[in-house]
Amino acid sequence: MGSTACMKVSQAYIADPAIEAEALSRHYKGQPEPAVDRFSLTIAKGEFYGLLGPNGAGKTTIMSMLAGLQPPDSGAVRIHGMRYGRHTRLIQSKIGFVPQELALYQRLTGMENIWYFARLLGLRGKEIKSRIEQSLEFCQLQDRARQPVATYSGGMKRRLNLAIGLLNDPWILFLDEPTVGVDTQSRHLIHQQLRRLQQTGTTILYTTHYLEEAQELCSRVGILDQGRILKEGAPELLLQRSEYQNLEEIFLELTGNALRDH
Ligand SMILES: Nc1ncnc2c1ncn2[C@@H]1O[C@H](COP(=O)(O)OP(=O)(O)OP(=O)(O)O)[C@@H](O)[C@H]1O
Hints:
With 262 residues, this protein is of the alpha/beta class. It is 38% helix and 22% strand. It is globular, with a radius of gyration of 19 Å.
């Protein structure tokens, strides 16, 4: 299914969208092909949407355009009906973005990192104190809160990164591969917390290479390659309508077996 068709299908069913992307394109200088090619998508409020694709498919570029971190060459994004430009400040105050690269100060403690980012958001006094406590509890780092982040395991850093992305109580949470390189226990906690967030109404858009995880967590997934959506839908519906047993088989059928080394 082409991306324009996906947009029409989505729009017909989604009356109250959180994210609308219309024909987004992005061509990096010096690259032979566009990273994102007329990408369209509508995500409902409270949805948990997984963007799936091989290395270089365009997931991070799409996510950063949706979160307003880089402008598209062409196309439009609306967040809760508002466009970037006129409403950038309001939109960004309601978005949480957890990047693939850890955005933490290694020499500061976990608590100091949370404090620093909370101050940047303008939190002060009692509010900041209770937010730090909530965040530490959320990522289960109370016992290690006063130790430098440099001493944390990969899973602890990912959990802290996630808690910091939530400091502004976002309407929409963007997560770029939030469980990469973490152990089973940390991954389990991250899954549990993401489910809770969705239950309380947060819209979540995330990328992952773990297809089993996406099948379990996402209300809808989009499989993309070369910056375009090839197929999208609820995982159980995609499986019902195919002869395949799991998302990985569908993914390989659509994107092929060729290695994506670049
Ligand atoms: N800043 C940049 N300058 C030039 N090319 C870029 C830049 N960022 C991404 N690209 C290229 O754009 C394409 C899409 O990259 P992107 O990082 O969006 O894909 P991805 O699906 O997130 O990949 P991965 O799974 O490896 O993180 C790739 O071909 C990549 O090499």
